[in-house]
Amino acid sequence: MIQRVLNRVPAYSAFLTVDELSESSRRLAAAHPDIVRTVRIGASTDGEPIEMLRIGTGSEQLLFFACPHPNEPIGAMTLEALSAQLAVDEDLRGTKYTWNLIKCIDPDSTRLNEGWFKGPFTITHYASEFYRPASFDQAEWSFPVVYKGYSFFRPIPETVALMTAISGLRPRFIYSLHNAGMGGGYYYLSPHKPEIDGALRTLMTDRGVPLSLGEPEMPWGVQLSPAIYRSTSLVDHYDFLERFGEADPASPILPFSTPARCTRRADRVRPPGATVRRRQRPPGAVGVRSAYCDWSSVRSVGAPSSSSSAAVQPAFWVSATTV
Ligand SMILES: [Zn+2]
């Protein structure tokens, strides 16, 4: 089945823009009105609609979202190709499921990457047109969360859209699609299902994708087996800081554990003139995210931990980073 799906993926030569992704979804819904529909789950920071494709009529809900990091459009293209096949392939779709696909959870920031989406695909061009918001402005990293001495209740609009989809669907499965700029592929799982670790690795190795076999991305990361990690979590981060002597573990985790603190720290880390955070690329932020954000003072909260704190706990949350 998987190879059959892969064999039918078109030979894309460029990434689709936000408008092209939306237009493709509309065409698909118009062509298959009994199977495919588009729904609006929210609006971006700049007021742009955030859309979700719903394919199938089954009672079990599966949720996929792409571009949580807007410079990683391979996930959007994956959902673009998958949606086209799901619309016409009943075997693939299954009668039990409804597939909910958010091709672009952050349209504002994805638009700021479109300068490199059509090539030339060189490191220089990518770097010159690259944009990535600070962690606290990312859809997957601003869920409300309370843990020990830490609390956060200011999700960005893109996160609110995701929360709306999750709470409305109560999905069995959530898949967040990331890409790696270099190195191998790896997975984050919550909860861990050891029985599928081998199959997940084989999905990559059978197709020539190397596994990332190094240390976790962050010092509090937990490797479950080769190339399989526990989903990043504020709980792990907080406990790590506490264990190694941080007097106030809440302090370094995020810039805004309270609204007042949010404003003060966010102002400090943004460069002058970057008051409109999306459509205007901050001066000097070309190609380097550190120009926009002081990474030494900013940390992030992972969606899996916060989803449980919001009493929305999917049966399974997987995040894959592939090259
Ligand atoms: Zn990513």
Measured as a percent range, the helix fraction is 25-40%
Which regions contain 5 or more consecutive residues with pLDDT less than 50?
255-279, 284-315
Strand content: 15-25%
Shape: globular
CATH topology: Aminopeptidase
Name every ligand kind in the structure: zinc ion
What's the CATH architecture?
Answer: 3-Layer(aba) Sandwich
Number of strands: 11
- The SSE string, one letter per element, is HHEEEHHEHHEEHEEHEEHHHHE
What does the model show?
The protein has one domain (2-322): Aminopeptidase (3-Layer(aba) Sandwich). It is 33% helix and 18% strand. It has helices at 2-7, 18-31, 74-88, 90-93, 107-111, 123-129, 157-169, 197-205, 234-243, 250-253, 259-269, 303-309; strands at residues 36-43, 49-55, 60-66, 97-102, 145-147, 150-152, 173-179, 186-190, 223-225, 228-230, 316-322. The strands form two sheets. It has a nine-stranded mixed beta sheet. Strand 5 (145-147) and strand 6 form a beta hairpin. The longest helix has 15 residues, at 74-88. It starts with a helix and ends with a strand.
Structural descriptors:
single chain; 323 residues; alpha/beta; Aminopeptidase; nine-stranded mixed beta sheet; two-stranded antiparallel sheet; 12 helices; 18% strand; binds zinc ion
Task: Give a concise summary.
This protein has 323 residues and is of the alpha/beta class. It has helices at 2-7, 18-31, 74-88, 90-93, 107-111, 123-129, 157-169, 197-205, 234-243, 250-253, 259-269, 303-309; strands spanning 36-43, 49-55, 60-66, 97-102, 145-147, 150-152, 173-179, 186-190, 223-225, 228-230, 316-322. A hairpin with a 5-residue loop joins strand 1 (36-43) and strand 2 (49-55).
